[in-house]
Amino acid sequence: MLALLAMLVPCPGCWVATSRTSQPELALAAVHWSPGRGSRDSIAAAVRFSATGGTVSARGQFTADRATGTFRVVATEASTGRADTASITIGSAPPARPATVARLSTDVGRPFGLFGLWNSPTSMIWGPGPFTVSQNFTDPTGIVAQITTARAMHQKLVLAMTGGSHNQYLTAGAFDLSKWQARMQLFNTTAIREAIAQGVADGTVVGNSIMDEPEHRTWGGTLTKSVLDEMAEYAKTMFPTLPIGVNHGPNGYYQWRPTERYKVVDYVVNQYNWWVTNGDVVAWRDKVLAQAALDGVTPAFSLNLLDGGTQDKDGTWDCAGTGGRGNHPPNCRMSPGQALEWGSALAPAGCLLLMWKFDDDLMKDSDYQVTFKSLAAKMAAEPARTCKRT
After folding, report:
1. What is the pLDDT of residues 239-268, one digit of tens each?
2. Which residue, 92, 116, 132, sits at the end of a domain?
C-alpha cells in the first residue's frame, strides 16, 4: 500500500492541519510502498503529485494559498495507478486562549495618549513614547494587523470601528441606525472577533467608541441614550468583552439629556475646552463625575489641545501669550502650562486620558514635550482602572 506524507508550506497567517500532522511544520514528502498490512518493510515509490488547492511540487511540497478550506494532496504511483491522499485544512490562525495571554507591561497605571497617533495599521507617526494609547479611525481590513502591531510596541488602542464622517450614517439629515449597523457588520468576522477578544484579554485593546458627540446638531437631533445603548448592545453581540464607549464634547455629556440614563454603554470620554467653564476644570470635572455616577458609566477624559485654550476676543485673534491660534476663531491652543494643569486635575478621575490631537508642530515644541512626559508620569502612577461599566 502507498503511504503519503506531504511537505507543508503554509501561507503567512494561515494555520494548517492535516490528517497526518497537527502543526504547520515542514515535513519531507515521503512516499513508500508497503508489501502488506502490518509489514515493517517498505521501499520508495515513484509517484506524481496533484492537489485540489494551493500548489504541489514534483517532490510533494504543498504550498497553501490565501484560500481557506480542506484540500487533498494525492500521490499516484505511475506504474500501477495506486494512490494515497493527505487531507490538508487551511484556516485563519487560531489565537491563543485569552485566559493564558500575559498582560502588557504598559498595564501599569492608566493609558495616556493622543488621538491620531497611527498613520497606518502597522506604523505610528510619533514615538510612541511617552504615550501609551491612541484612538484612531479603525478599518476592517487593517484592524487585526494594528492590534498585532500595537501589542508588539506595548501600545494600547481605543478603536473607532464606526468613525469617520457623520454623513455616511445619515438618511435625510438624521442618524440612520441601519447604516451604522451595516458598518459594524464589516467587523463581524471570526478573525476580527478573535483578535479583539485576545486584545482585550491582554490589555492591548482598551475600548471602542461607537459615536462621537451624539449631542452635535449634525446627527439630526434624533439620538437618545437609549439609542446609544441599543448600539452598544449590538456591538456587544459581536465583541462581548470589549468596553463600549461614547465620546462627548465639552458641554455635551452633563447637559445633553441629563434625565436619561445609559444602561449598557460602559464609558464616556469627555473633552475639556477652556470656554465651557472659563478654565475652572475642577468644576467641569465634578459635573461630569456626578452625571457618570447617575448613569453607572466609567468616566474618561480628553483635552482639546488644538482648540481648547483661552479665547482671544480683542479683535486681532493672534492668541499672544497662549499656545497659538486655534482651529476656529476666537479659540487658541492650550499652552503647555494649561495642558499640564488641566490634565493633572483630570488624570486621577478617569480610566484614561486622551488629547485632541496629533499635530506635528506641537509635538516638536520642547515645552509641550515636557508637559507630555509629566502627564505620562502622573498617569503611570495611578492605579490601573478598567473602562468597563461600574
Report:
1. 999 999 999 999 889 999 999 999 999 999
2. 92
pLDDT digits (tens, 9 = 90+) for 155-173: 999 999 999 999 999 999 9
The answer to whether residues 333 and 211 belong to one domain is yes
Q: Are residues 218 and 289 in the same domain?
A: yes
Query: For 59, phi and psi rounded to 5 degrees?
Result: -90, 0
Q: What is the mean pLDDT of residues 268-292?
A: 96
Examine residue 387 and state whether it is found in any structural domain, yes or no.
no
Same-domain status, 38 and 135: no
Half-sphere exposure of 359 (CA within 13 A, CB side): 18
Domain of residue 34: give its range: 2-92
* Angle made by CA atoms 211, 216, 222, in degrees to the nearest 5: 80
Q: How far apart are CA 64 and CA 265, in angstroms?
A: 43
Length of the chain: 390
Query: Is 227 in contact with 262 (CB distance < 8 Å)?
Result: no
Both 204 and 307 in one domain: the answer is yes
pTM of the full predicted structure?
0.73
Going by C-beta distance under 8 Å and a sequence separation of 6 or more, which residues neighbour residue 147? 157, 195, 196, 198, 199, 204, 205
Q: Which residues pair with 114 in a beta bridge?
A: 134, 355
Looking up cell 497567517, which residue turns up? 13
In the chain, pLDDT over 90 holds for what percent of residues?
A: 69
**3-state DSSP assignment of residue 238:** helix
The amino acid at residue 345 is: A
Contact (Cβ atoms closer than 8 angstroms) between residue 390 and residue 248: no
Reading the block at residue 389, the C-alpha cell is: 461599566
Contacts of 76 (CB under 8 A, 6+ apart): 47, 48, 49, 50, 82, 83
Mean pLDDT within 183-204: 98
Considering only residues 95 and 290, tell me which one the structure prediction assigns the higher pLDDT.
290
Tell me: do 259 and 188 sit in the same domain.
yes
215 burial type by CB count under 10 A (0-12 exposed, 13-18 middle, 19+ buried): middle
Domain at 135, CATH number: 3.20.20.80
Quote the cell numbers at residue 1.
Answer: 500500500
Smallest Cα–Cα separation from 291: which of 265, 247, 255?
255
Total domain count, the chain: 2
Domain boundary among 36, 67, 92: 92
CA–CA gap between residue 390 and residue 169 (Å, rounded): 30
